[in-house]
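Input:
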Amino acid sequence: MLSKRIIPCLDVKNGQVVKGVKFKGHEVVGDILDLAKAYSDAGADELVFYEISASVEQRLLDLTWVETIAKNIDIPFCVAGGIKSVEDAGRVLKQGADKISINSPAIARPELITELHDEFGKQCVVVGIDSFYDEVTNEYLVYQLTGDPNATSRTRYNTLDWVKKVVDLGAGEIVLNCMNQDGVRNGYDIAQLKKVRNICSLPIIASGGAGSVVDFKNVFEQTNVDGALAASVFHKDIIKIPELKQYLAQNKIATRLC
Amino acid sequence: MLAIIDTGCANINSVRFAFERLGVTPKVITNVDQVQSAERIILPGVGHASVAMDRLISGNWLDAINEFERPIMGICLGMQLLCEQSSEGNIKTLNKIKGNVSQLDVGQLTSPHMGWNNLNVLKPHALTKGITSEDQVYFVHSFAHQINECTFATTKYGQSFSAIIAQDNIAGMQFHPERSAKVGARLLQNFLDWQI
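Output:
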C-alpha cells in the first residue's frame, strides 16, 4: 500500500539550517548534511530543502550543498530557492536533486510551471504555496517572498484559484504552507487542506502547524493528504520519526517502517 | 567496470552516487564503443518514453544493447524501454523483455503513483534475494509493465503491476532503488552480485 509520507523540511540560510516562527526570527538549527543524514537514517520518507533567502536576494540557491546531499543520502529530496528558469532547474536536478519546488518565481511568471513540466516531466515539478487565512474577510490568500519578513507581500491570488491554476499549468505536486499555523505547533489547518484536497487530484503535502503525533494522525485521517511536512517538531526533537511512524501504523495509517 | 548509459536524463548522478555508496565506482558512458569493456550496464531513465527511445536510436545504442550478454538493468523509464512496446507515445521499444508498457489504471487515486510502496515477490530471483513483503521502495511513474511470466515482484496501486522484471541477462526495476534507502541498496547490491 502507498505510504503516507513524513517529510522533514530544512530551511537553509547561509549554508546552515535555520527555523523561524510564522516565517520570522530565524535561528540556526544545525549543519545541512548532519541533519539530512540524521533524518534519513531515522526513517524520513523524503526531505525538502528551502534556501529561504535565494528568492528574496534574486539569485539561484547555492548548488554545492545539493551535490553533497545527493551523494550522502539515499531517500528522495526536493530543493527550492530562486529557481526561475528551465536552466536553473536543470542545474539543480543535475546535482542530484529528485524534484524542484518553485513558489515566488511561479507567481511572478506562471508559465514557468509549464516550461518545467515540458522539459523534466510532471513528477519533479513541485509548487509551494504560502497561504494566509484572513479572518476579517474569511479568505485564503497567497503570499510571496516569505523568506524575509521585510520582503513578504500579498499576491493577487486567492489560494483556491491559484491551486486550480497551477494544476492546469502542469504541476506534479503541491506543498501547501498554511502560514497562520507555521512554527506554532497547534496542528495542521484541516479546514483549508480539505478545501484544497476537494479541488485538486495531485499529491498534496500539508505544511505548517505540526505539534504532536496526533496532529499527523488527524491530518491523514481527516484530509487524505499524501504527505505531511514539518520542521520545528523534528529540529527540536519534540517528535522522533521512528516513534511517530509506530504511532501512525498502530492507528492503521499506511506507513513505511524501517 | 559498471557502466551507466548517459541517456541525457536527470537522475544519472543519483544512480552513480548510489553505487558509490556501495563502494563501486561506475563509469557514465556517452559513447557506444565503451559498452564492450563493461561487465554490467545500467540503463537509467526519467521523462517521456518516445524522447528517450529516440535518444537511444540516434546514439546507436540498440545493436550494442542487443549484443551485450552480461547483465543489463533498466531503472524506471529505462526498464520500460527494455520491454516490447510502450503506449506512452505508441512506440516499439527494445524488445528484450516480453510484455508491454501501458498507462497505470489508478482508478480514483492520485496520479502519478508517487511515494513508498510494498514489493510483493512472486518467485525467487537473484535480484530479489533478501526482500520481503514488508520492504518498501520509492516509485514515481504513471506507466507500467503488465504482469506476465517475466515478472518477479509486483506492487499494487489501483491495479497490480510489475515492479521487478527479468528475462535472460536483462532486468528492470520500475521504482528508484537509488533513492530507496537500505532496501534499495540491497537491490543494487543484488544486481552487482547477479551471475548469468
